Request: fold
Amino acid sequence: MPKQKTIAATGNVLVAEAMRQCAPDMMAAYPITPQTTIVEEFAKFVANGRVHTEYVTVESEHSAMSACIGASAAGARVMTATSSQGLAYMWEELHIASGMRLPIVMANANRALSAPINIHCDHSDIMGARDTGWVILFAETAQEAYDNTIMSVRIAEHPDVLLPVMTTLDGFITTHSIDRAEVMDDETVSAFVGQYVPENALLDPERNVTHGAFAGLGGPYFEFKHSQRLAIERSRDVVKSVGAEWSEISGRPFGMVETFGMEDAEVAIVVIGSTAGNARHVARGLRAQGMKVGVVKVRCFRPFPYAELVQALSGVKAVAVLDRAESFGAEGGPLYLEVRSALYDLATRIPAVDYIYGLGGSDVKTELIERVFNDLADIAAGTAEPAGLVYLGAR
Amino acid sequence: MATLRELSHREDLLEGGHRLCAGCGASIAVRQVLLGAGACDCQVVAGCATGCLEVSTTIYPYSSWKIPFIHNAFANSAATVSGVESAFKGLQRAGKIPADKKMKFVAFGGDGGTYDIGLQSLSGAMERGHDMVYVCYDNGAYMNTGIQRSGATPLGAWATTSEVGKVGQGKVQRRKDLTSIIADHHIPYVAQASISDWKDLTAKAEKAFSMEGAAFLNVFAPCPRGWRIPYDSTVEIAKSAVDTAFWPLFEVVDGEWKMTTRRVTRENRKPIEEFLKPQGRFKHLFKPENEALRAAVQDEVDRNFDYILKRAGQ
Reply:
């Protein structure tokens, strides 16, 4: 029987705990705020002999992902964690990890990118990695960060997938705030994730495999990329089934998108990460006053849940997308572009507005979210036009 | 040290039929290094930085490597192989690989991938002390992209980014002394070798692979295409680099510096012209107006040789 205990801990402590329970054979560690406490926590597990993990204190994030790629190709279960500039510094390696079909699991503490330098939360770093071929999960809370991390291992190593997975949580807001969470017993997690059985291990003594071959000069590069597309498409069902299985064990729900008030909502906010809680809080208040508002939270960003999103939003009269990242020069932020694209499949056109918010940890006050719902109500009532792109709360 | 007869009985771990140029020094370097590795009598896993060696030996679906091989990117051959070695340790600790099993790990990179873009990755791996051998095959330029100057390109050499023209006369800067830099990481074994001196090179490879911990070999490996030399003169040019003291042969064992050939001394080293003259990349140095530059090249070679000799206590 699964045994859970309730603890108070930060998101980073919970991610480190989940990693320990998944028992990686190798971990690459490099410090960057606000991720550092994950690898610090793990260093204590190493020092106390609680894990068998070979803990490699690399000299940069580029080398962190490079060493992870070497170790994963060698046949090990591999994990690391990063944030912001570190994720950006890994960029070429992110593509190589997915292109070589290596099931690496990496936590990312979502943080702004320089310049100007800023250590606080936004999604600029992770959205910059959206096209790197990784499965990307977002956590709203420390609990979700814990659950997502455990699920990531199963998703990554699933024979239908074999892709790296990023399990992300919002910098400081989720990484550093102490939250209430339920932690599963080691045996249950261990049985859930199982053993990793690599298919083409470099260290397999029976075979002399070559990894990372050259596929240019008219070689099958194009076909390799097609196989990656097919793999991430297959991951949709795997994410859902692994989520469902973990839900069954843990008693906590998991959805590619998770909704609040959408059964009768006339207007809705689509949001990712920690701000979903604020949005629900405001929606709850407005609903008590009789406003039919709802919230759609995207928990899995890659693969993007188009069908689930369309299902959740069909019937609403106006939609607001909250984007905690820019895509300068595009019609809106990264989430907006995805949502607008998903809405194209609906027979009725739903007006949509993009709100860029919270960049570099800029405060997300409840009044701001209330303002968004009021804007939507005006659009739905036909008394206002969609405003295009709004910098929400910019001074 | 293995005799030539013994070496000839060891399996060649880089299969022929790869697409490197005729006369390429890189494949000679790899084969000699892996012959030396044969002495450790265990499975060897290789990694390689992006470059001529990698693209020419792993054209999908073919591979010339008769040992497990990984290529990742340009800057990270050392980090990647350090990851492979770490996986081995972790899997041993997990009981998934027998604790008494022995394996060795080798990372290759050209001078661009080692002196320049991969230096941080190399330095990190050496400092962490992974049980691995890093081998730089030094041909003194970015040859895979078409002969651009690197930190290993000699003073005065022509390259496509250190052009010769009305004002420019080849590379303005001196070479980076990478072998000394890695020696100053105080790892168990560091050596500088040349494909021309096969006995010295294979012996150094044997030592590098027999040491526990990080080892580094810097192997002089001429590039006929980039140096503008006939493809059948690769070994002769490499020998000339040793004889002129352009490329001193030495090793550093646990901090003890030692010259490994008695053939070349401060007194009998050949003039640098013998190394420069046959190479098209130095042709401009023999114009009358470049005599001072040629002298500067000789001074630089002497200065470097004196430095190495001094560290070796000579």
